[in-house]
User: Fold this.
Amino acid sequence: MVELTIDGAAVTVADDATILDACKRAGVETPTLCYLETLTPVNACRVCVVELQGSRVLVPACARRAESGMVVQTDTPRVRTSRKVVLEFLASSVDLSTAPDAQRYCERYGADPLRYGAAPQTVAQPVKIDNALYVRDYAKCILCYKCVEACGTDAQNTFAIAVAGRGFDAHISTEYDVPLPDSACVYCGNCIGVCPTGALMFSSEHELRERGEWDEQMQTQTDTICSYCGVGCTLTLHVQHNEIVKVTSPIENSVTSGHLCVKGRFGYQYVQNRPEDGSS
Amino acid sequence: MDLHFTSAKASLEERAAIDAAALPFDSAAGKPAQDDRASETTQRDLLLPVLHAVQDRFGWISPGALNYVGERLRVAPADVYGVATFYAALSTTPKPKQFVHVCDDIACIGESEALISSLQHLGTAIERSPCLGRCDRAPASLGPDEAWVPARVGGTELRLLRRCAGGVDPESLDEYRAHGGITALEKALELGPEGVIAEVVASNLLGRGGAAFPTGRKMQAVANAPALPHYLICNADESEPGTFKDRVLMEEDPFAIVEAMTIAGFATGCEKAYIYIRAEYPVAAARIANAIAQARTAGLLGENVMGRGVRFDIEVRRGAGAYICGEETALFNSIEGKRGEPRSKPPFPVQAGLFGKPTQVNNVETLANLPLIVLEGGESYARVGTPQSTGTRLFCLSGAVALPGVYEVPHGTTLGALIELAGGVRGHRLQAILLGGAAGTFVAPGAMSMPLTFEDARTTGTTLGSGVVMLFDETADMMAILQRIARFFADESCGQCVPCRIGTVRQAEALQKRDFGLLDEIGAVMRDASICGLGQTAANAIASAGTNLKLW
Assistant:
């Protein structure tokens, strides 16, 4: 066990715990965007940075192992400024309209993206629609690397996408940006499952949003077990107006860890095949 | 690994070039190993050399060639594409096989436009480039038929530059031996690993790449690391704008670097070493490769170094146009065939570096000190310079100075005395001096009495960095220089972390708008929240122009 101090309070955590785990134990809410408990931390977004006594710079809570005797501060002016400015950098260059967590953090830290001027450089670009199942709207991408990790060794081992380019031009891409049907993509949709900003989205959700008909208030979520094979994955069916509009799996589910295959994720149409007359 | 490829196929020529480059190097045999295409394991660490081979031969990496590279090395094509698009020297669209790089970076900025127009007038294909490490010949260019010119070297105490200044043939091992070479390696083998490290610790040598970490402590940590194997890397990715000392050492005294690496490898228990040389230094790479080959033939490298049962060999790796790969953990990823993105520290390289193993990384100049330390003893070495900044130091003088070049002086020499060695200020009245490169600090002309030591740099809030001393006279447009520095960092950011990827762009925008309050805040956050030294120092020079030059 490791004993450390978070905002003045002594906390004891397991040997392999991170500062983020210790913050949770201490009841301190820490913003994260690129972190997910099922993926290897890449600590790229830097919104979780904290002040560690003895460290010249701030450290990422999500990736830094907790060590005995660490003294961590999570709400100093340095921490607040860094979190605020990092969120402003994102909000001034990326469309966060479908990223509720990021929006909430922006509000919490008083981020003001408008102070970067009338025409800051952005990642605005057209939506990629090249298959029937999901769309990729990289104008909403914060480059958290989660989709790459889920497509790669952290879940699917398909390696259809990677980060390409460098600096502000860095972006998620297939080889030569070929359309998904030409790539290695197997449409498991695990990239959609981990995307924190809605850059990756079910076509059904995208179309409803385009028509202004996406309405989460009107949706129900029903857990069931996938009927395709014997693994027994838990599916959460998101239903709006008696139509399945999206399928997810709970991240804490011991069978799936939130991941599914193409059948569980997208093969739901047979459930709602109805007679021509509309009766069910 | 079950990989999926598009239908694009490589031409026969492309396949042949890739096959030839895709053979791993066999240190024992001193040549490429047998074809092991039947193996199922990935050979990702060969990715950069193979992509270089395709780029050099065909001028770009076609979709067919990229597929074949992935198939051959068993790397997913999306990953190969991610790597190929990371490096400025690799292209995934056709471009001229031959063109001239013209530097439009801060040392050359005033004169590069005229050179570019004249080359374009002649119909030469050109590509603008960040610092080419030839600031002594501004405006610098690098073309396929470039004639090699020795750099001007000077100083008050020529220890590292002794052979460079003496005109010793850099391509002859016999000449090197006739001028005192290899005697340090002999003595090191007598002293044993612990004896060598004890001398380095006693010398109080601090790293010359910019971070000034005690070299002896690093060596102790690697030597004592339980995990095996250990790796040694000579960081020759010298890309800090204004820096060209390591190029001069490699071009003019390459055997010294090979000897120094052998000493370092022996002391830290490394059998395999890499020297990672930036793409823009073809002469340095050729001379180092020649020195390695001759040393191997003479039994100074290989299975049985000097007949003493020590195994050690060196592989040359070429960078591909990425400043960030000089950051040690980015350098590991680059050698491993990944994008040159820095890793989070801890773990530190001495614990888990290249291929996850304990790794000793040293700058070229740092290593070049080892033979001196071994020969004369650490205590004697430490009598040169000041107690806290021992030994001599190479400084790269460029810009508005009469005799640009590399100058070697003992630590403690004043900035003014160093500039006098280089013939003093050229042109009009001096306006500013940049110390330490784009990641360094500007000082005003009043700083001439500052002694050049690590401790004085610390107390004055400046840095010696990689030894850059670049002068700007009053005709220089300092705001344009600052804009170029801002653009340099935006171009060279790897893009991994938000503070640097977006911060470097916002910094350039704020500078353009003269919003200095915002500029300060952006700089503070880049410094505090970026993953690596690039983002953490990207605002330093610009901020110092406000505080030290009173530009705002």
About this structure: The mean pLDDT of chain B is 95. Chain B touches chain A through 52 residues (CB under 8 Å). Chain B has 24 helices and 16 strands.
